[in-house]
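Customer escalation, tier 2.

The customer says the design service returned an amino acid string that "doesn't look like it belongs to this structure." They asked us to rerun it and document both sides in this ticket. The original C-alpha cells are below, unchanged.
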C-alpha cells in the first residue's frame, strides 16, 4: 500500500485539464505545455477523443487571464494612463481569440485531411490548437509580448499537430501556417476597412 502511494506521488501529472477543478489544474497544464510540449501532445494523441469543452475552456482561460494581467500591469506601470485604449484592444483580443479558433481549426483540419494520411479526428486538431493558446499569456508583457505570443502559439501549434496526428514537422507547419496566414490577412483587411470608414466619417464631419 505504501509503495502504491509513493508511486502515485512520483507519477507525472495528468495531461487532462479539468475545467471544473481548482486553478492549480490550469497552472499545471499550462506549465506542462510550455516546458514539455511534445510529451504533452503525445499523451493527448494516445488518449481517447474527448469532448472539446476542456480544451476550449483552457483557451478561454488563457486569453482571459492574459487580459486581466495586462490591465493590472497597465494600472501599476502607467498609473492608469491609456487604460481605456488598452482595455478596448484586449477586449477585442478576448472576443477575436475564440472566434478565430473555430474557423482556424476547421481550415487546419481540412488541410490535415488533404495532407496527412492516417490522421485523427477533428477533435484532436481542435485540442492541439486550443491548448496552444497558452502562448497568449505572453501578450500581457510590455514590449515584445505580442510577438512572443504569435511565435509561441505557432510553435506550440506545429508541435501539437505533429504529435496528435503523428505527421512530419513540414506537414504540421503547413497545416498551421496556411490558416493562420489567411485569418491574419482577413483581420488586416477588416482593420483597414474600419480605418477607412472612420477616416471618411471624420472628413465628412469637418
Amino acid at each position: 500500500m505504501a509503495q502504491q502511494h509513493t508511486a502515485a506521488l512520483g507519477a507525472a501529472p495528468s495531461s487532462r485539464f479539468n475545467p471544473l477543478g481548482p486553478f492549480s489544474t490550469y497552472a499545471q497544464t499550462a506549465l506542462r505545455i510550455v516546458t514539455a510540449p511534445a510529451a504533452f501532445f503525445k499523451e493527448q494523441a494516445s488518449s481517447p477523443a474527448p469532448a472539446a469543452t476542456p480544451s476550449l475552456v483552457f483557451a478561454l482561460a488563457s486569453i482571459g487571464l492574459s487580459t486581466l494581467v495586462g490591465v493590472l500591469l497597465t494600472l501599476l506601470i502607467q498609473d492608469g494612463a491609456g487604460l481605456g485604449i488598452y482595455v478596448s484592444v484586449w477586449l477585442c483580443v478576448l472576443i477575436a481569440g475564440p472566434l478565430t479558433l473555430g474557423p482556424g481549426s476547421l481550415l487546419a483540419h481540412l488541410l490535415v485531411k488533404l495532407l496527412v494520411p492516417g490522421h485523427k479526428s477533428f477533435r484532436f486538431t481542435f485540442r492541439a490548437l486550443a491548448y496552444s493558446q497558452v502562448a497568449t499569456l505572453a501578450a500581457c508583457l510590455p514590449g515584445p509580448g505580442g510577438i512572443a505570443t504569435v511565435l509561441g502559439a505557432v510553435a506550440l501549434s506545429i508541435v501539437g499537430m505533429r504529435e496528435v496526428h503523428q505527421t512530419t514537422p513540414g506537414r504540421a507547419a503547413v497545416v498551421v501556417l496556411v490558416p493562420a496566414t489567411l485569418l491574419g490577412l482577413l483581420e488586416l483587411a477588416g482593420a483597414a476597412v474600419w480605418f477607412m470608414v472612420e477616416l471618411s466619417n471624420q472628413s465628412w464631419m469637418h
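Tier 2 assessment: The sequence is consistent with the input. Residues 22-205 form one domain. The chain has eight helices and no strands. Sent an explanation to the customer and offered a walkthrough call.
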